Prior knowledge:
There is one protein chain. With about 260 residues, the chain is an alpha/beta fold. The chain has eight helices and seven strands, in the order βαβαβαβαβαβαααβ. It has a single domain (about 5-245), classed as NAD(P)-binding Rossmann-like Domain (Rossmann fold). It has a seven-stranded parallel β-sheet, sandwiched between helices. The longest helix is centred in the middle third of the chain and has 29 residues, at about 105-130. Bound molecules: nicotinamide-adenine-dinucleotide. GO terms for molecular function: oxidoreductase activity. It holds the Pfam family adh_short_C2. It comes from Pseudorhodoplanes sinuspersici.
Amino acid sequence: MALKDKVAIVTGGNSGIGKAIALELARQGVRIVIDYVVDPAATDALERQIAELGGKSIGVEADVSKIADLQKLVDAAVSGFSRLDIMVNNAGIETRTSVLDTTEAQYGKVMDVNLKSAFFGTQIAAKQMIKQGDGGRIINITSVHEDWPMPGNTAYCLAKGGMRMLTRTAGLELASHNILVVGVGPGAVATPINLSTMNDPAKLAQLDAAIPLGRMARPEEIASVVGFLAGDGASYLTATTIFADGGIMHSSVGL
Ligand SMILES: NC(=O)c1ccc[n+]([C@@H]2O[C@H](COP(=O)([O-])OP(=O)(O)OC[C@H]3O[C@@H](n4cnc5c(N)ncnc54)[C@H](O)[C@@H]3O)[C@@H](O)[C@H]2O)c1
């Protein structure tokens, strides 16, 4: 898919990996719906940054754990830019609680923001793409924890594991519509979700030592994978996950 003048939604798009994805796609000529739930000023700043690149974007406040809000994002893409070609299910949260300590509310929130949002985001985006009739891309930002257990973060692992099967199953179901569904599984990335580790030198040194490439990723190093997956070069990739993890999943050091 040549990216110029395509239209993408990026959920959780005003910070971290989502922001880097919005900028990467905008640089390639994609018009962007930036979803956000907090920090409208950051969204405004990102819209200005995209405009400076010669791109177009609109910020839309939408809580992706609500189906009506996901529909609002697709409606904004269609009313603002006439269509939707790329859905990036990026929004995510974690609680860092063990299986023994996780409350029903924490469980529900992690599942809804990470997994329910990706499920219904896929469904609602795919319906719009099918209506248009010329295919599309759905890119789920999962994690190495779609596969790799992380004690003390059980609900998050469960949600990302669910996204793994969403990617594979929806990829098969939607293939006949030429809608490709792919996961991107980052390792540790320097973003707000990891502030507690980044602000603790001992924890950060332990993490860096466990990563074969010796450091966390920059958000742009995940965004460039998404840029590839959205484009022509990835036309035969579906129902699978690309891991961008600096080798950590296969590291013998461990955390
Ligand atoms: N940073 C990492 O090390 C890492 C590793 C693997 C996977 N990931 C995944 O990457 C994605 C982006 O995370 P990040 O690292 O950029 O952190 P981040 O905290 O900057 O991004 C998460 C975004 O999701 C948004 N969000 C939270 N709840 C929402 C809701 N209900 N509706 C809409 N948006 C909501 C947040 O406001 C934020 O913009 C997440 O899915 C995360 O699980 C991150």
